[in-house]
Amino acid sequence: MKKRYYIMVLSLVSFIQLGYGQESPTTLENQLTQIIESSNRYQDYKVIKLSKLNMLQKNIADTVADYKATININQTRIGDLEATIDSLVQNEKTISADLALSKQKEDGMVVFGGIINKGTYQVIVWSVIGVLVLIVLILFFKFKSSNSITKEANIKLQETEAEFEAHRQKSLEREQQLRRKLQDEINKQKEG
């Protein structure tokens, strides 16, 4: 029974030491070695003082408690670091989205609240300018055509007015001649 206890304690101490490393110069392994060396022999068995065994048990419990506290602290730190990493990842996503939007704005133009590629914007602007130039040319030629038609109409109007004036003059002269003839006839009949 004691042999089992001894093997179990030795295994536990080895496990703790392998799992967590050495704590100080007076490690559990050193304490166990001192207890074994200072214990008496009885045939194949070692007789260990109960006080030393209790002290070793207390030291093992303290070491395990320290390691558990260290594990808890490390888990808290890991949780904090994971939260920080999540925050940094979220910030990176936000910054990446802002960078993509900035690049899109740099490569484009904001028109009517929307972002249009600079090449598309230039095509639209030059198309509008081309359409406006075409409209101006059409209006210019229509104006020129209308202006020439108006000039021709004014010339014809002046010719017509001149003809009318000539005709009026001729009518006036004929009327005057007819009045003279009529007056001559009236005068001849009064005399005669």
Net shape: rod-shaped
Find the count of extended strands (DSSP E, 2+ residues).
Answer: 4
Alpha carbon gap, first and last residue: 191 Å
Radius of gyration computed on alpha carbons:
62 Å
Q: Please give the domain count.
A: 2
Which spans have pLDDT < 50 for at least 5 consecutive residues? 18-25
How is the secondary structure organized here?
Layout: H1 2-20, H2 28-38, E1 40-42, E2 45-47, H3 50-107, E3 108-111, E4 114-117, H4 118-191
Antiparallel strand pairs: 1-2, 3-4
Describe the structure.
Helices cover 84% and strands 7% of the residues. The chain has 2 domains: 2-91; 112-192. The protein has helices spanning 2-20, 28-38, 50-107, 118-191; strands at residues 40-42, 45-47, 108-111, 114-117. The chain starts with a helix and ends with a helix. Residues 18-25 have low confidence and may be disordered. By secondary structure, it is mostly helical. It has a two-stranded antiparallel sheet. Strands 3-4 form a two-stranded antiparallel sheet.
Q: Any descriptors?
A:
192 residues; 2 domains; 4 helices; two-stranded antiparallel ribbon
State the gist of this model.
The chain is 84% helix and 7% strand.
